[in-house]
Design goal:
The complex is a heterodimer. Chain A is α+β, with helices and mostly antiparallel strands. Chain A contains eight helices and 20 strands. Chain A has helices at residues 17-23, 44-53, 73-80, 128-133, 159-165, 208-222, 232-242, 285-294, and strands at residues 12-13, 28-32, 35-40, 55-59, 64-69, 93-99, 105-115, 118-123, 141-144, 149-155, 179-184, 187-192, 201-207, 227-229, 299-305, 315-317, 323-333, 338-345, 356-364, 367-378. By secondary structure, chain B is of the alpha/beta class. In chain B, α1 (15-26) packs parallel to α9. Classes of the chains: A alpha+beta, B alpha/beta.
């Protein structure tokens, strides 16, 4: 629903704005889709550490929320996404990607099996057009709820304790990717054990009307658990450590790519586990079957790079000094204590044979320096604490 | 598996489907044809009007047949008979000034020597362009973005054919191919009645007015082929088109095709790996097949027989965006004696009679159509087949068969309560052109585009199985990547007018599809 006089503003404020603007002492805002949200609140590193050591709260409201419901909802999502959606049971969430006809990834997102015959898709980009086109012949109803539903990420080791203190019974019993509906001030509120940080954490979906009181109550109850607001800059560090891709950063959104070859298939993003070629038809299947037969052009890898200089945007070379790829995201990980990066590799790189050497530029006192650092491929997540999986969740 | 063991099921028994089936059977495949109606021939089949009269069902003239197909199938031997050939076009107007067109000659309605010459020049240049178009018809169109040598070659030969026409014709091609017939005809002549008559050929059966882009290509399409090698010339088949469908049926049977009538196909079955396994009929019977060839339109094929849920969304979307707005109705009248049209002598009654007095008239009439309404003065192509074939009506009686254009599929007020009104309106309109005709009417019926959809199973009642426009032509017909008679499901092919080269009674799509199937499946 459009806010009144929306045309007078170039961006909307989220339902939490009244509070987030008080907390945002740096007054550092950024645009996320139609909204303005904090980029950072007080100090990026402390916001980051709140998520790792206590609890950080993110305003996810601008995340695009789609609802798919109807008799054919399961059949529909199974045709839309590349993975086997029959395995996402009721009140479960699944990470998924979807492809265009060429088998190239359009976007990724999380699919919430909210109720019987009802799924929600949360994604970075608006997908109404794709969802609607895909609905021909299916008994489903599709709408977008972005402006009607407020969303928070409550992430960190003490997050379960805070929600429990707020009265959400048995919150600690939620397994990773579980969903539970609660009633809050007479409104339904949905809590899922999901997040974008690779840690213990929850996402909360609620109607706009209760958003502010929820926020205030959470910060009141959370004070002794060192609850902190956190902005998008901290979130970006957290998601890289967690091994999560960012559309538009780690891969081109297929529909926005201008140059042929700029897009990637799920195989080329290291997401083959999200593709089930044995299920019946799904969007992009024919092309992916073909790619599986012919082989992919790109390989997506996680890298551990020598030294401590982040390899942002670096070119990668092999031992013969031939260019073999590019870094898409990079940071020095405080939790893993490692210089980490994601990269897209291509020919003539040979798996297991070729070295990977990153060309890193960095500044010291305004002087640019260049180092060539060797990198190794990491297959496990950079940061993977046990508390991420432990059920019941740790309570303090 | 050798091709002898491969079982082919053909959906529909329209002329393209029968041509395709016969070619395939001749090549050694085992072929079964499934037709939902009780007779073959689809839109060309003969139709009963009351107890004593017969009329051509939908199509009533043959204008651009593919002679190579007719010869290969030996249709003459199997009973094809023309009751009249090289028909002239007699164009009426309300004042009773008829214009007669015969090949590149035009006469009547105060036409001047200068205008006659203008028409000759126009005809010469258009026929040349039509020849270019036709040179692309006999083979599968190239696939875009393909590195296949055959595709590259046909793309190159397309360019070469265009160049070989000579500089003048090539510049005509580039100048005219994507524009509208209104501007082109205005460039050649000032004779409004002549322009109206020619523009009628461009818009007949298409959702367009003379000012709509692409209306030159539809005009050229009408000029392709032509019986007896005469471009755009029209013929009538004896027995109300019955001898044509009969000969197709005979040729198919002779080649070993099994034809199942009253066998409506409900669905096509295939595995998750998109391998065809067979089809199921509406009565529940199942039939195993290795190859399925659909002679019905692409939208019905994928929406009804395959089902959108079993296809990738991109495919469904493209297929559903094939424009299929039918806007031609069919009028059938049984008359107790010969009608008398103003300005037409009795011996001209057997010709192709057109009512389309000017391009401005056509454009204004199309305006109604665009908005789901209907004008009370509709353009028509009228034939009286009983003049040439006495078997169609009792002695002294006649049948009139007319294609009435600009009758919308989506009529704003709905068809249920409007059909009899539109039928009466058509009869009244004809009564104005042939005073007293109304009193002669013994039987009458109007097949609206909605009826044509129902009767012949064509989406939107679109006669050409998809509008003939530049974006739905050649390698884009019916949709890109499916233009080679193939589909996303391996061994499911399309052979109808929805594929290249498109609508009209040619048989070329059926032949081309058969060639492609032989190449891929042998």
């Amino acid at each position: 629903m459009l806010q009144q006089n929306h045309y007078l503003k170039s961006v909307y404020e989220t339902p939490f704005h009244e509070r987030t603007s008080e907390l945002n002492i740096l007054n550092d805002w950024t645009r996320w889709k139609d909204y303005t949200v904090p980029n950072s609140y007080f100090r990026v590193d402390l916001e980051y550490f709140a998520a790792r050591n206590s609890t950080a709260v993110f305003d996810y409201t601008p995340m695009i929320k789609h609802r798919i419901k109807g008799k054919d909802a399961l059949e529909y999502v199974n045709r839309f996404f590349t993975r086997d959606m029959t395995k996402i049971g009721l009140h479960r969430v699944g990470y998924a990607v979807w492809c265009d006809e060429q088998g190239q990834v359009i976007d990724d997102g999380t699919v919430f099996h909210m109720r019987e015959n009802e799924y929600w898709l949360l994604s970075a980009e608006r997908q109404l057009e794709n969802l609607a086109v895909s609905a021909i012949g299916f008994d489903v109803e599709i709408d977008e709820l972005t402006d009607d539903v407020a969303a928070l990420g409550v992430q960190g080791p003490t997050s379960a304790s805070i929600l429990k203190a707020m009265g959400f019974q048995e919150i600690e019993m939620l397994k990773p990717f579980d969903i539970k509906h609660y009633s809050y001030h007479g409104e339904e509120i949905t809590i899922s054990r999901t997040g974008f940080t690779g840690d213990l954490g929850y996402e909360v979906l609620m109607s706009n009307s209760v958003a502010l009181s929820f926020y205030n109550e959470m910060f009141a109850k959370g004070e002794i658990y060192n609850i902190k607001p956190a902005g998008l800059e901290a979130l970006d560090l957290l998601r890289i450590e967690a091994g999560l891709l960012q559309p538009g950063v780690d891969f081109m959104i297929a529909e926005e790519a201008i140059r042929p070859g700029a897009t990637r298939s799920p195989y080329e993003l290291g997401l083959s586990w999200l593709v089930d070629l044995s299920k019946p038809v799904f969007n992009g299947k024919a092309a992916l079957v073909e790619e599986k037969k012919r082989g992919s052009k790109y390989t997506f890898v996680k890298l551990n790079i020598n030294g401590n200089k982040p390899a942002s945007g670096s070119y990668l070379y092999n031992q013969a000094n031939k260019k073999i790829g590019t870094v898409t995201s990079a940071m020095f990980s405080p939790s893993a204590k490692a210089n980490i990066a994601y990269a897209s590799l291509h020919e003539p790189w040979k798996k297991g044979k070729d070295k990977i050497i990153a060309e890193i530029y960095y500044q010291k006192d305004l002087e640019w320096n260049r180092v060539m650092e060797e990198a190794t491929i990491v297959t496990k997540p950079f940061f993977d604490p046990d508390r991420k999986r432990a059920t019941p969740a740790e309570l303090y | 598996m050798t091709k002898k063991n491969k079982k082919i099921a053909v959906v529909g028994a329209g002329h393209n489907a029968l041509v395709c089936a016969t070619y395939l059977a001749k090549a050694g495949f085992s072929v079964d044809v499934f037709e939902s109606r009780s007779q073959v021939g689809g839109m060309i089949g003969k139709r009963k009007l009351g107890e004593e009269y017969s009329v051509p069902g939908a199509a009533h003239l043959l204008s651009h047949v593919d002679e190579s197909v007719f010869k290969k199938l030996n249709l003459k031997k199997h009973g094809l008979e023309y009751s009249a050939q090289d028909l002239k076009t007699v164009s009426l107007n309300r004042d009773g000034n008829a214009l007669i067109i015969d090949g590149d000659e035009v006469d009547g309605d105060d036409i001047t020597m200068k205008e006659k010459k203008e028409f000759k020049e126009l005809n010469k240049r258009m026929v040349k362009l039509a020849g270019f178009l036709e040179s692309t018809y006999g083979k599968k169109p190239p696939r875009l973005g393909s590195d296949d040598r055959g595709d590259m070659f046909s793309l190159a030969s397309l360019g070469l054919n265009a160049r070989m026409m000579g500089a003048d014709s090539m510049s005509d091609l580039l100048k005219f191919i994507a524009v509208n017939i209104y501007d082109v005809l205005n460039e050649f002549t000032d004779h409004n009645h002549l322009k109206g008559t020619l523009a009628f050929d461009a818009i007949l059966g298409n959702h367009m007015g003379p000012r709509t882009n692409n209306s030159v290509i539809t005009y050229l399409h009408q000029l392709t082929g032509g019986a007896n090698g005469k471009n755009g010339s029209h013929s009538m088949v004896s027995d109300g088109t019955g001898s044509f469908t009969k000969s197709l049926e005979e040729a198919a049977k002779k080649a070993g095709v099994n034809i199942h009538l009253n066998a409506s196909v409900k669905s096509i079955s295939f595995t998750d790996d998109l391998e065809i396994t067979g089809l199921t009929l509406k009565n529940g019977d199942a039939f195993d097949a290795d190859i399925i060839v659909s002679g019905i339109d692409p939208r019905s094929t994928f929406n009804c027989l395959v089902g959108p849920k079993k296809l990738e969304a991109g495919v469904v979307h493209k297929v559903n965006n094939v424009r299929m707005r039918g806007n031609a109705a069919k009028l059938h009248l049984a008359l107790s004696s010969k009608p008398k049209f103003k300005g037409i002598s009795e011996d001209q009654l057997g010709q192709r009679i057109v009512y389309s007095p000017s391009m401005e008239y056509l454009e204004r009439t199309f305006d109604f159509n665009k908005y789901g309404q209907i004008s009370d003065d509709l353009p028509m192509e009228i034939t009286i087949p009983s003049i040439h074939d006495k078997t169609l009506a009792p002695k002294g009686h006649h049948v009139l068969s007319a294609i009435v254009n600009y009758v919308p599929y989506h009529l704003k007020e709905g068809w249920e309560n409007s059909k009899s009104r539109v039928l009466d309106q058509c009869i009244n309109q004809l009564d104005g052109l042939a005073p007293g005709l109304k009193g002669l009417v013994v039987q009458s019926e109007l097949l609206t585009p909605a009826d044509i959809e129902e009767e012949y199973g064509i989406t939107g009642g679109q006669w050409h199985h998809g509008e003939l426009t530049f974006d739905q032509f050649l390698m884009l017909r019916p949709v890109p990547k499916m233009a080679q008679y193939s589909s996303p499901i391996s061994s499911l092919y399309m052979c109808g007018a929805g594929s290249h080269p498109g609508g009209g009674i040619m048989g070329t799509a059926g032949k081309n599809a058969a060639m492609e199937i032989m190449k891929r499946e042998s």
